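Assemble and predict.
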Amino acid sequence: MFERLCIIGVGLIGGSIAKAARAEGLCKQVVALGREKNLPNMQRAVELGVIDAFYTDPAQAMAGTDCVIICTPVGSMQAIFEQLKPYWNSQTLYSDAGSTKGSVVEAARAVFGKVPSNFVPAHPIAGAERSGVEAAKVDLYKNRRLILTPLSSTDPRAVDQFNAFWRRIGSSVAIMSVEHHDTVLAATSHLPHILAFALVGMLGRKDEQREIFKYAAGGFRDFSRIASSDPTMWQDICLANKQEIIPLIQQFQAELNQVEHLLQNGDASALFETFSYAKQARQRFLEIFDDPT
Amino acid sequence: MFERLCIIGVGLIGGSIAKAARAEGLCKQVVALGREKNLPNMQRAVELGVIDAFYTDPAQAMAGTDCVIICTPVGSMQAIFEQLKPYWNSQTLYSDAGSTKGSVVEAARAVFGKVPSNFVPAHPIAGAERSGVEAAKVDLYKNRRLILTPLSSTDPRAVDQFNAFWRRIGSSVAIMSVEHHDTVLAATSHLPHILAFALVGMLGRKDEQREIFKYAAGGFRDFSRIASSDPTMWQDICLANKQEIIPLIQQFQAELNQVEHLLQNGDASALFETFSYAKQARQRFLEIFDDPT
């Protein structure tokens, strides 16, 4: 499909895309572009066979590259677009992997005046608690969902190419608006992460005062897994999508107020209904999750 | 150790105790006591080899029984104590597996006037999202923690017996006060369950309006696992321990208010600190969890 794929930010996300693209024969060569401070990581990526070469100079990285996927935290997108702008090539296809789409599109507008028609905003939905190229997996995106959020101005052929690219990698592709993406992911991903960070932090401080972690069970282990997520990535996501997240935090607070109210009043049957409904909802989620069509 | 163990409530928890006790040769016989409506479940327990016999008549269940472990939801404890009272035997040892201890001790006081010296309140900390005897596992408590909360009036020999019983099953045993147990478990278990139930319910209602569950990833799957917990068990736990839980809900809401505030103000570095601290705390939790000494 591509001669040369350039991954910008070859960590868990970018590294896994590189591995998957290679495994599926979607590109002949994979290179990375990064900053000076990323050199050890990019060197490691070569050692691990994730990429063939790496550059800190965008001119060298872009030479002969026909596909670029930006995999850095969403807070860096504007700086990355600035860096690529002098070399932006109408024959090359560009995409990203950011967990928010509105902020990425805004960053592109800020740098280019309008979003380039050969940039297709994308978000591969694959959770992972580990970071860095060492954690990259060839099957991270297999049987997972990918969302593309092309604008009306995006070149349909570019959309088709990335659609095919991700389907070859094994993801099922959904297309939706930037706004809908950010609304949905705020609920299914951003809010849960905030809740996990908040709870684990609160219990962490209690544990420092007096041991409590030793009395937490496997349930807490699973619940808290997403609190191991990369703080930089999540600081960026939360700030980028705060307009969607803040109302959800408020809605969740209302849910908690309701539960507190039921507890105060000893309302057993209402509590049972609440917990029952959640159990059924979770069952419904599992059926959907285990069948990514 | 025992001639005949009687499990009251042979579901996941009681069934797993039965299986583990048998596997470790801790009793010669295992029987169950239950209600009419539990007959199919108890019949299944016999078919699965979890128990040898079952009764709905406490007199028959208690005959020849030298150890009783009550494994029903904590809201039923008072009724169970009432049922056992006419047959309560000073030569028999009694214990439970309830997720709260204060309410269990209160129930015993209400029925007996004071907590019988041969009743040792216990709580095996083992999470599971499935219910019922079909889900019972012989190793559910292996390498897990068990908390005993004897009172000053509890017979030390009874405490020693259950300490040994649970250690043979593979649990590490901690002894603490009833109050400390309920305080700690409110934080490590009860609050997380409430958060999971509240979030999954909230997202479940959104999903009914417009599909969102299909865009949740593996992180949400883990986070929501404890929302599959048994609603009756959790209704009982939350009501029994509401004095500890309500303040924790309020503390958690203060945490969320703080995050909301940071988002409103775009305070990137404070968000980073919050998420970083949680990540480190989770790491500390994992080290403790994976080393139950």
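The longest helix of chain B spans residues 178-209.
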